[in-house]
Amino acid sequence: MKKLMLLVGVGVGYVLGTRAGRQRYDQMMGKAQQMMRNPRVQQKAEQVRHVAEEKADQVQHVVQEKTQQATNAAQEKTQQAQHAVEEKTGQASQAAKEKVASATSSNGGSSTKPGGTI
User: Fold this and answer.
1) 11 and 28 in contact (C-beta within 8 Å)?
2) Is the pTM of this model over 0.85?
3) pLDDT tens digits, one per residue of 43-101
4) What is the largest CA-CA distance in the chain?
């Protein structure tokens, strides 16, 4: 593909830079058209098209498979994170309840501030 682009660039540069102009352009276009009508060139172009279609189908399948795997992994991580948050929230809630109960029982059940005043 890089060679083809290089050849196209050289050809365009030559045509644009030459003083022969239209005559040389017509000659080059005639050769290009003659080459494209060559059965061997057409056969190779058909083979390239066929291979490209096969590869496109394979790539599409792989992309779909990898996308599904990534989606599943993201969903699993989300569920794990949600579970961890719920667990930590429960632990924090339980710790807060224990502190309130401890503070209430150490004050004799009264609801006073730690300084002893209401």
Assistant:
1) yes
2) no
3) 998 999 999 999 998 999 999 999 999 999 999 999 999 999 999 999 999 999 999 98
4) 110
Residue type, 107: N
Which comes out higher in pLDDT, residue 10 or 110? 10
- Angle between the N-to-C axes of helices 22-37 and 39-106, in degrees from 0 to 180, rounded to the nearest 10: 80
Q: Spell out the SS3 assignment of the chain.
A: CHHHHHHHHHHHHHHHHCCCCHHHHHHHHHHHHHHHHCHHHHHHHHHHHHHHHHHHHHHHHHHHHHHHHHHHHHHHHHHHHHHHHHHHHHHHHHHHHHHHHHHHHHCCCCCCCCCCCC
Q: What is the distance between the alpha carbons of residues 17 and 32, in angstroms, rounded to a whole number?
A: 19
